[in-house]
Design a protein that fits this description.
Elements (H helix, E strand, L loop, with lengths): L5 H4 L8 E12 L3 E5 L7 E4 L7 H6 L5 E10 L7 E12 L15 H6 L8 H23 L3 E2 L5 E2 L11 E2 L26 E3 L4 H11 L1 E9 L12 E10 L3 H22 L1 H15 L12 H10 L3 E4 H10 L1 H4 L16 H12 L3 E7 L15 E9 L3 E9 L3 H11 L7 H8 L5 E7 H9 L20
Parallel strand pairs: 3-5, 6-10, 12-13
Antiparallel strand pairs: 1-2, 1-4, 2-3, 4-5, 7-9, 8-9, 10-11, 11-16, 13-14, 14-15, 15-16
Length: 477
């Protein structure tokens, strides 16, 4: 008899049918009642054991964390809290668990403690809900772009380019680190390395994505990216996943339309397919918020925040308008911002972005036309000579969730900008070929997947929405 998932069993009408269920023991009460979970849902299935006909040896081995297989009859439950239960006829222990040593006892554990045992935290209700939502969001991303006719491209993880020009990269080498070859100038001789040149883990698939868009029109990437940035914050990871669509024949407005549609699509998909998990996470967040001072609590519940992004058309304003709003705000005048807004050209902080979304407009915001000095070299220069056709999408509770731009398709403008900020034109000759041979207006954006998962689950630390977080001084498991 095939195994049934607990999620499906709990929706089944009980008609005394014979079933097989397998999972891990959460609790075992009075030698009679097993709370069984298989990860398909946070809800446990109650298995009723006839201890008079079950051997003492088996009963002793039914401990928290043990894996078991149960054959039994599905019946209506007389107890509170469940509609159905399984009356066990046979129980087989598939894997023992020493209850004394098992770290996940049936009690509340702190998120900090669970990060230390990330290999086991999947088994808790919180992380069960988080990773089921993460799974749905990943599927929804692919579903959205597939329905739009986009081509999914795998861009390289090992690359010789620094797409952002930031230099915060992890180097890739097969040199013996105790005996690195040097050339006659005393510099590292990369010609002897595996790739014959300096290589690193990718910080973005965008540049390669643009190459594909110049042939297929509409493409997207969804893969791991790496930043060797020494940021120990609740919003930074050294290894994370990025969604990066690139579209030929798009301008900045088309780009904004697509990004807004995509965000609303995937949030809606998660609400429709993981409502139970999101409700659980919403209640969890409410409990967490109660520990905070009143002025630090969110005005919206998690469910309200998600609906807020679905029910409101995103507000579109220029960076210049945003600076004026922030500069004239009471928040700024009363010095409530940690970073005061005093002049045009400053890079906006998360507190400024959240003020615009949560206090001023009370809806998601898309900022466009940023100063070119604070944006990347590949962004299309506007005719004012000061700004570029960049866009950032700002969400409540999180600030920037998407960053993108119309790309600079004019070869002369792009080369001039690269020279201005010291990016070697020769090394990116392959990239510039897209401007030499059949260039056209095109645009794209990047969405940090973990930021999206953070927003939809209501978790407050990005290390809790990726299975095994990679951060400074931390590379466990």
């Amino acid at each position: 008899m095939g195994r049934l998932r607990i999620k499906d069993i709990l929706k089944t009408i009980p008609e005394n049918q014979q079933i097989t269920v397998k999972g891990w023991v959460r609790t075992f009460r009075n030698n009679s009642f097993i709370a069984l979970n298989d990860g398909s849902t946070n809800n446990n299935l109650q298995v009723v054991v006839d201890f008079t006909s079950t051997s003492e040896e088996v009963l002793k081995r039914i401990t928290t964390g043990a894996a078991i297989s149960v054959n039994g009859i599905l019946i209506a439950s007389l107890g509170k809290g469940q509609v159905v239960e399984v009356k066990a006829t046979t129980i087989e222990i598939l894997g023992d668990s020493d209850a004394e040593k098992y770290p996940l006892q049936p009690k509340k554990h702190s998120l900090e403690f669970l990060r230390e045992i990330a290999h086991l935290r999947f088994r808790t209700n919180t992380f069960g809900a988080v990773f089921r939502v993460r799974n749905s969001l990943a599927f929804a991303i692919h579903k959205f772009f597939n329905e739009k006719g986009f081509l999914y491209i795998h861009t390289p993880i090992i690359t010789s380019s620094d797409a952002e020009g930031a230099g915060e990269m992890f180097h890739v080498t097969n040199f013996d680190l105790n005996n690195i070859p040097k050339n006659e100038n005393g510099e590292i001789d990369y010609k002897q390395d595996f790739f014959g040149k300096s290589a690193n883990l990718t910080v973005s698939g965008q540049l390669e994505g643009e190459l594909a868009a110049m042939a297929f029109s509409d493409i997207y990437t969804f893969g791991p990216t790496f930043r060797a940035e020494n940021s120990n914050t609740t919003r930074h990871l050294a290894e994370f996943w990025m969604i990066e669509p690139e579209m030929a024949f798009y301008d900045i407005n088309d780009n904004m339309d697509l990004a807004e549609e995509m965000l609303q699509y995937v949030i809606k998909y998660a609400l429709e397919n993981n409502l139970e998990d999101i409700q659980f996470l919403s209640q969890r967040l409410e409990e967490e918020e109660k520990q905070k001072p009143q002025n630090e609590r969110s005005e919206l519940s998690l469910l309200d925040k998600l609906k807020f992004c679905l029910e409101n058309k995103f507000e579109r304003i220029t960076y210049t308008q945003a600076i004026e709003i922030l500069r004239e705000s009471n928040h700024n005048k009363k010095k409530k911002f940690n970073y005061l807004v005093d002049k045009w050209g400053v890079d906006l902080q998360s507190e400024h972005e959240r003020y615009l979304v949560e206090k001023h407009f009370k809806k998601p915001v898309i900022l466009i036309d940023y100063p070119k000095e604070i944006k990347s070299f590949y962004m299309r220069q506007n005719e004012d000579g000061k700004t570029v056709a960049a866009m950032d999408i700002l969400f409540p509770g999180i600030g920037e969730i998407v960053g993108g731009s119309q790309r600079e398709e004019r070869l002369d403008r792009l080369e001039t900008r690269m020279h201005e900020i010291g990016i070697p034109v020769e090394e990116l000759s392959w990239y510039l070929d897209t401007r030499r041979f059949g260039s056209c207006p095109h645009a794209g954006f990047g969405l940090g997947f973990e930021r999206l998962v953070l927003f939809v689950t209501g978790m407050t630390n990005i290390r809790d929405v990726i299975p095994f977080p990679r951060t400074p001084k931390n590379c466990e498991f």
